[in-house]
Amino acid sequence: MNSVILPLAQLAASNTPEGAGAPCPPGCVMHAGEGPTGVAGMGWYESLGLRDYDFFTNYGTYMPRTHCLTTAQGAVDWPWVIGLMVLTAGVIAASLRIFAFWRKSYLEEQIADRNKKLMDLAWVFLWCAICGYAMSILMFVWPAYRLLAGFLVVLNVFSWRFATKLKDFKVSFAVKRLRRELDEARLARTEELESLVATRTCELEHARAAAEMASESKSSFVANMSHEIRTPMTAILGYADLLSDPESAGTSEQRAELVGTIRRNGEHLLAIINDILDISKIEAGKMTVERIEVDPAGIIEDVVALMRVRADAKRLGLGWSCSTRFRRRSGPTHFACARS
To answer: What DSSP element (H or E) covers 328?
Structure first.
């Protein structure tokens, strides 16, 4: 056993000046009275006089990692040390970039919408990079294991703060499902809105067609009413002319008949005007229907009297006869006849 331990101690001693106070690589054992000097054996460290103040390396007794990476000749294997440091620095740079993006995205959200659980995970991620990678580089030249212990305390704080109430973090794993469900709901809502728009468009088309038809009906009604207004007005003027001519007026009974015809035509004209004014009531839904008994024969007589002047002017005979009396219900211009 001693034959193995002694060469290892001699190999470690050859890595420092004069072979005294050499650091001990992992796995080696020093004989009694030959404790390792650790980082205190490095020239830059001794020149700065830090040994008496360096609490983090136990006052220079801890070994830097360069003493663990040596060649067969006992020298530090700098190519591998530098390679490991560069690769580790790359990981640190990527980690810092990820954390910066994470923190920026977190702060861009409104305070009420921020996911603090995700931010706790980001801090755990950052302190893992500090403890695992940044300290790995640092310990190649400065074995501050006690500083690492302090960093690990901070890492424990963030880790356990995240580890409590993990149910709050569960929703993060459902993000894709929630997004899919949101897209499906949005697609369904879009289809529903498109269908609703199509239905409303169809209804508007029907309403427009009905409005156009109503407009045409109103125009036709106005055109017919112009004729209906002119006809009684012509009769009134014609009978008025007869009354103004003493020779054509005839007897007092004939003049009274002419005056009665003028009156009936005036009333008929007034009824037509009232019908025109009732259009506004119909459009407003305030039109009421009244049913009364009237005499169709009387209406026919009025029509004959109304048209007689124009017939006489054209030397046409105009008259009527009916052996059956009718009654009607409704107004004077629209009715349904029933034989009685």
So the answer is: strand 326-329
Q: Is 62 exposed, middle or buried, given 0-12, 13-18 or 19+ CB atoms closer than 10 A?
A: buried
Q: Which residues pair with 337 in a beta bridge?
A: 328
- Given a contact cutoff of 8 angstroms between Cβ atoms, the answer to whether 261 and 305 are in contact is yes
Label residue 306 exposed, middle or buried (CB < 10 Å: 0-12, 13-18, 19+).
Answer: buried
Collapsing DSSP states into helix, strand and coil, what is residue 329?
A: strand
Segment holding 123, helix H or strand E: helix 116-129
pTM: 0.47
The residue behind tokens 């209406």 is 299
**pLDDT digits over 145-174, tens only?**
999 999 999 999 999 999 988 887 887 888
Distance, in Å, from the CA atom of 326 to the CA atom of 340, rounded to the nearest integer, reads 6
Q: Which residue positions in the chain have pLDDT lower than 50?
A: 1-36, 329-340
